[in-house]
Amino acid sequence: MRPSHTVRTGLPIMTGDSDVMARRILDGEPAIVAGDGHTPWTLTRSADFAVPFVGLFGNTAAYRDIFHITSDCAHIWDDIQNTIASMLKVEANIVHVPTDTLIRYNPEWTGPLVGDKAWTAIFDNSKIKSVVGDFSCAERLEDILAEPITNLKQRLAAQRPPRAELDALVDWICREQSSLG
Asked: Global pTM?
């Protein structure tokens, strides 16, 4: 059972469409976090990314080189999801599911999970800082998530995603995982 729809990624989520998952959180429905929820992941706001990115333009030390630009701070997935819920003024109902299990339910989640979100994502920014100078990024989740939450609320006010295939899949996975105890 694979949901077929456009996937929005306005909020950091592990699987599926961020607006659907946010609606689920708002409605008190279970939301999936891969693994035990303690994997660190780095979130970088576009405003924070822009400062060092602009510093690369015309910088001869950057010619023919490759850089990544991220925050120096990482947050675990449970904290990310709980902060999203808190900012929406609800409690998150998180169900932890092993990554391999999620991929068996929906192979399309392989790339987003195995390629990005299920592994620790903490980066060394010393290379970019040696070229453009020191920069800082927002570290508090409430600051990082403020703009995406505002945008989410506007989208949900205009059109709340209806229950669909993704909901059925998430419900099924959560029921089966919860039945394991």
From this structure: 0.89
- 55-101: per-residue pLDDT in tens? 999 999 999 999 989 999 999 999 999 999 999 999 999 999 999 99
Q: Does residue 23 lie in a domain region?
A: yes
Residue 148 CA to residue 127 CA, distance in Å, equals 29
Cα–Cα dist 8/10, whole Å = 6
Residue 22 sits in a domain whose CATH number is 3.40.50.720
**Which tens digits make up the pLDDT trace of 99-146?**
999 999 999 999 999 988 888 888 899 999 999 999 999 999 999 999
Domain tally for the chain?
1
Domain range for 101 is 18-169
Question: By C-alpha distance, which of 141, 127, 155 is closest to 45?
Answer: 141
**Both ends of the chain: CA-CA distance in Å?**
24
Structural domain includes residue 88 = yes
